[in-house]
């Protein structure tokens, strides 16, 4: 081997070692997904519809537009970084549908690491009809159990929807595991939420065993009910409401979790499979800009790249100023950015709003 060849080989090994050291420091990552109306377009808004759910086949179940491409991208990106990544689902549906759900995930090519179901028939048999729709206590118990079983220092991204109480549940969970929510206050809040007393005892016991650590990086809420995003402002910047998974992918890219090719894949799936047009995606992009979710400089670069690859109308390649920002801004990706520390959540007020709005926190401006 020539001298130049030896130098190139040495430099290649140095680069490889640097990449290994960078990836070796990345903590395991957990993506926790609500199943119904976040992954699947489930319909259980009446007892009659709920009873039909166990008899649906895997082929009958419809996934939310873009969600399959997004989960695949999250797993693939972690694999490229040599980072341990886990995907877990939590469902309010009964365990009797478990086989169909697993078959559906297999059809979609999703390698799930675990699924938890709610035993609705147990409540039906005992006449506990109030608990059929009670999600807060159920999900908090399952989330805390899962955290205790999680790898040490694993970071988490949570995905839910605006149909039930996911914004409140996930925020409570994030603040419990970070240690910022006092356990006595947690108990008072759960009493006000009329949690099943047995679950309340279980939640307090589980919370006392969790080692405080700020591990929840983001909470994403799929706006299936088209709730105005501004109504979630009281939950702070950690929680990001999105109208579709193209928007979710854009924010994950901004935070350094996904590469641009992953965002393109999610957008392409909406165009090819779900009837979206480049104009629809442009409106979604502009919505994030108007809300300030995407700051001006990175947004200009993303808009240019999306237009150049056909996700947005070609006329959206951008103004001279946008193209200039795109050139001078460092390329995103690599080190993930944490969202800015949010405001302290006024849970007492949110719960009052939750009660006043019929049980859905975030539906009224706090």
Q: Would you mind describing this structure in some detail?
A:
The protein has about 375 residues and is α/β, with parallel strands linked by helices. It has two domains: about 25-240, Rossmann fold (3-Layer(aba) Sandwich), CATH 3.40.50; about 260-335, no CATH class. Helices cover about 50% and strands about 10% of the residues. It has helices at about 5-25, 45-50, 65-80, 100-110, 120-125, 135-150, 165-180, 185-190, 195-210, 245-255, 260-275, 280-290, 295-310, 320-330, 345-355; strands at about 30-35, 85-90, 115, 155-160, 215-220, 240. A six-stranded parallel sheet has the order 3-2-1-4-5-6, sandwiched between helices. Helix 6 packs parallel to helix 7. Mean pLDDT is about 80; it is low at about 15-25, about 320-335 and about 360-365.
* CATH fold naming of the largest domain: Rossmann fold
End-to-end distance: 70 Å
Q: Main β-sheet: number of strands, strand sense, barrel status?
A: 6 strands, parallel
Structural class call reads: alpha/beta
Q: What string gives the helices and strands in order?
A: HEHHEHEHHEHHHEEHHHHHH
CATH class category of the largest domain? Alpha Beta
Kindly report the average pLDDT value.
Answer: 82
Globular, elongated, flat, extended or rod-shaped: what is the shape?
globular
Q: Report Rg.
A: 22 Å
Roughly how much helix do the residues carry, as a percent range? Answer: 40-55%
Number of domains: 2
What is the number of beta strands?
6
**Unreliable sequence segments:** 14-24, 319-335, 362-366
């Amino acid at each position: 081997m020539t001298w130049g060849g030896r130098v190139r080989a040495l430099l290649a090994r140095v680069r490889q070692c640097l990449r290994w050291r960078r990836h070796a420091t990345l903590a395991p990552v957990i993506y926790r997904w609500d199943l119904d109306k976040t992954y699947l377009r489930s319909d259980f808004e009446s007892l009659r519809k709920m009873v039909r759910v166990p008899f649906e086949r895997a082929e009958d179940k419809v996934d939310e537009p873009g969600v399959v491409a997004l989960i695949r991208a999250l797993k693939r990106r972690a694999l490229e970084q040599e980072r341990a990544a886990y995907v877990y689902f939590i469902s309010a549906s009964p365990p009797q549908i478990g086989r169909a759900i697993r078959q559906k995930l297999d059809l979609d090519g999703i390698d799930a690491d675990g699924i938890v179901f709610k035993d609705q028939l147990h409540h039906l048999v005992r006449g506990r009809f109030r608990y059929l729709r009670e999600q807060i206590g159920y999900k908090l118990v399952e989330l805390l159990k899962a955290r205790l079983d999680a790898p040490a220092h694993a970071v988490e991204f949570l995905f839910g929807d605006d149909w039930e109480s996911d914004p409140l549940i996930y925020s409570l969970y994030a603040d419990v595991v970070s240690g910022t929510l006092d356990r006595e206050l947690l108990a008072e809040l759960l009493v006000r939420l009329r949690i099943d007393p047995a679950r309340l005892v279980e939640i307090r016991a589980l919370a006392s065993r969790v080692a405080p650590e700020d591990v929840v990086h983001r909470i994403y809420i799929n706006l299936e009910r088209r709730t105005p995003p501004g109504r979630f402002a009281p939950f702070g910047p950690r929680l990001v409401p999105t109208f579709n998974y193209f928007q979710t992918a854009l924010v994950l890219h901004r935070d350094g979790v996904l590469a641009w090719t992953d965002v393109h894949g999610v957008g392409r799936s909406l165009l090819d499979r779900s009837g979206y047009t480049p104009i629809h995606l442009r409106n979604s992009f502009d919505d994030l800009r108007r809300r300030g979710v995407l700051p001006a400089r990175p947004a200009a670069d993303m808009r240019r790249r999306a237009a150049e690859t056909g996700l947005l109308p070609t006329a959206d390649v951008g103004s001279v100023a946008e193209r200039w920002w795109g050139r001078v801004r460092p390329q995103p990706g690599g080190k993930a950015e944490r969202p800015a520390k949010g405001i302290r959540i006024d849970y007492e007020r949110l719960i009052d709003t939750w009660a006043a709005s019929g049980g859905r926190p975030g539906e009224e401006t706090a």
